[in-house]
Amino acid sequence: xxxxxxxxxxxxxxxxxxxxxxxxxxxxxxxxxxxxxxxxxxxxxxxxxxxxxxxxxxxxxxxxxxxxxxxxxxxxxxxxxxxxxxxxxxxxxxxxxxxxxxxxxxxxxxxxxxxxxxxxxxxxxxxxxxxxxxxxxxxxxxxxxxxxx
Length: 149
What we know:
- This protein is of the alpha+beta class.
- It has helices at 3-31, 129-137, and strands at 35-37, 52-59, 65-66, 71-77, 82-88, 100-107, 113-121, 141-142, 146-147.
- The chain has a 5-stranded mixed barrel.
- Strand 4 and strand 5 (82-88) form a beta hairpin.
- The radius of gyration is 22 Å and the shape is elongated.
- The relative contact order is 0.14.
- Residues 145-149 have low confidence and may be disordered.
């Protein structure tokens, strides 16, 4: 092998290694992506059971039911639709009816959302921008006032 051929082989091997590394990183990211939905979006999108998503909106007034142990059932609403959510674990201190919430989990076969993570927000300043914008569009959330009750 000439010097030029050795150099091209090293460059080609390095490029191949970089391409494999990029493909592995892309594959890992595609496995951990959780798409964000509001309850009204779910009627237009077919989310199959077992698909991991984030569900955001407001905790519907009068929907929080404490079950056995640390199991809690509640509904997440955007003013147009609501989705029943079941969560087992300790809820955040700021979790209450009428406040913003983002849950992450999967739908079970009974069309209930089984959350494994619940993030509660106390006002629109700390709510994810997508949730606050959509709730403001629907007239459910007003700047500086909190949720309409």
